[in-house]
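Holo model, iron/sulfur cluster. Inputs:
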Amino acid sequence: MAYKIVASQCSVCGACEFECPNAAISLKREMYVIDASKCTECAGQFDKPQCAAVCPVEGTCVPA
Ligand code: SF4
Ligand code: SF4
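Output:
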């Protein structure tokens, strides 16, 4: 299980990048993307996915 970023909604603010405990979020071709192989949905680290928690755009960091 992993989260994804809905590219059409992302404002490329960068807030999520440094909140991810697994460094799963990076800027690729001027868009933020989540590496599904690194995303744990923050299980065991936080009580909710941190990217979704900090994202200012509702519904942009969502379960893949
Ligand atoms: S859900 Fe957690 S582990 Fe997955 S990308 Fe978001 S912050 Fe990183
Ligand atoms: S916090 Fe949300 S709007 Fe900002 S870069 Fe991440 S996904 Fe995009």
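The mean pLDDT is 97. DSSP finds one helix and four strands in the chain.
Archived with the compound record.
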